[in-house]
Amino acid sequence: MQRHQDDKTFFSARGFGRPLGLGNKCCLLVIDMIEGFTNPDLPMGYDLGEQIEKTNMVIRAAREFGIPIIFTTIAYNDTRLEANNVWMEKMSGLKTLKVGTKAVEIDSRLDYRKSDDLIEKKYASAFFGTDLVSRLTTMNADTVIVTGCTTSGCVRATVVDAIQYGFRPIVVEDAVGDRSVDSHKQSLFDMAQKYADVTVADKLVRLLKDRYHSPKNPEVGHG
Q1: Strand ranges, E, within 114-161
Q2: Does residue 147 have a cis bond before it (omega within 30 degrees)?
Q3: Which DSSP state fits 98?
Q4: pLDDT digit string, tens, across residues 64-113
């Protein structure tokens, strides 16, 4: 812990970790909260019960304030091209994420509705090989609120791409999870210093309420 505090002081003194804040319009990204990752009985699954509860809290706030929600899943077809995906050589468990199977479905504990957008991706970042930029641009979003899994994998990859495309990422610390606690903590630290604002669900919801009801800027937080 002392090392972490020293790191924060070191980075802060050199201009890292400056707050981005909310922009004019938000979009909520729920990254890969699928059965293949949230069911501990499956090869790539682990317990994300607490993160799912916090994600639902953020989803409820998004619905209340008219913020659009985009879910993502990873799913592969039985094609030669996808079978030769190099990422599968590194993580063989990805082969269990087959189109049409329960493993690629959004966890039933989440408040996922047919009216929500769903992006099917093949790699870590929700931006890579998808139309996410076009969707965000169409809705005039400049801020992405990020929940999901894993913190060190698809969440981090999405956040890095988000800021590179000019969006303001906000990671909800208690609504993202990882198989490794150490990886989770280090990735949150790295993102907070270099790529995103990091906050907790309760604080985010209060911030959205304050901005949504602000007479000076009533459109903030709207989708």
Answers
A1: 117-121, 143-149
A2: no
A3: B
A4: 999 999 999 999 988 765 667 888 888 888 989 999 999 999 999 999 99
Domains in the chain with CATH codes: 22-211 (3.40.50.850)
Q: Which amino acid is at 115?
A: S
Phi/psi at 12 (5° precision): -60, -40
Which tokens belong to 169? Answer: 């990422």
Q: CB 105: neighbour CB atoms within 10 A?
A: 14
Non-local (6+) Cβ contacts of 81 within 8 A are none
Model's pTM, two decimal places?
0.90
For 85, how many CA atoms within 13 A lie in the half-sphere containing its CB?
A: 21
**For residue range 17-76, what is the model confidence (pLDDT) as tens digits?**
899 999 999 999 999 999 999 999 999 999 999 999 999 999 999 999 999 999 999 999
149 is catalytic: no
Instruction: Give every CB contact of residue 123 below 8 A, 6+ residues apart in sequence.
Output: 87, 129, 157
Among the listed residues 26, 27, 149, 154, the single catalytic one is 154
